[in-house]
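Protein in question reproduced for absentees:

***
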Amino acid sequence: MILSGIIPHFFPGGPVGDPLYFVFGVFFLWISGRYLIEGGVSLGKNLRLSSLVVGITVVSMGTSAPELLVSIKAALLKHPDIAVGNVVGSNIANIGLVLGVTSLVIPLTVRKATLRVDGVVMILVTIGFIVMACTRKTLFWHEGVIMLMIISVYLIWLVIKSRKQKIILPKIEKKGISLWWVALIVIVIASYGLVLGADYVVVGASGLAKSLGINERVISLSMVALGTSLPELTASITAVLKKEPDMSMGNIIGSNIFNLFGILGVTSLIHPIPINPKILNFDVIYMLILTIFLLILGSKMFGRRLSRWNGLVLVFFYLFYIFVIYFNKNPDFFHLGHFFNAICPS
């Protein structure tokens, strides 16, 4: 709504225009996210910022920029299911698809601290989101402030912890950006590309939902979520192909924590977000169960590594989830919220 004056719309809506908007939107999110990170890392190095600052701000949050822009745009255009479903679906895709596919190619080692700290934080953040959403049924700015305070504490703790650890940044080729002002221009253009892509994804997804007779919840949890997860998916697969499997489970869990509390926190500050009961009763609970299952797979019981077999299982659970949200016709089947009526009464 606010950005409509700077967003060009070239195609009419409908069966032809909506898919084009969605495809172009995903492309802009993917390419803009890559250049935003490259420009940010280059600018940080030119300004002599520490690797720690660049790594935590640009690299980790840069990959979540598509989710953030899509959720904000969806909330402003009064598509709350897309705003929430995009985040929840991205978290499920990060665990089931990204980690699953990555470990299928090269098994991933799981650090002990990841299970004890980041994994527990992810579970607590998910439960906290469930409690807030069930209590209020809508995320207002009050909840947004609470979520952002919690994510800020987590990031501060992450900074303190990372002082003793080596942070691996994306390698910048010699032919990459070397001048700070060029990096700044790249960041500005990439940021506009993210805004453009977010607008196209929301417009295309809502139009596709109407054209195909599929509700926005399903579209956002699958197509939109997969599109906004492309930075994580691309980064992990690229690392594997270059024989640098540094994509750890801790990085994905950290990204999921920021997605849930950081993105929804910022979005609810800008515009209230009503929560679809179906997202709470199945999708969020499925995300919680999948997270717990992931931590079990990465525990000492399984040798603290995600094997190819584990990766296959994770991919299966992701495909099973997609099958259920598209083809399940019984609203009470897989109604996982029955187990949580104590905190989420209907």
The radius of gyration is 19 Å. The longest strand covers residues 108-109. Residues 180-212 form the longest helix (33 residues). Confidence is low (pLDDT under 50) at residues 1-7.
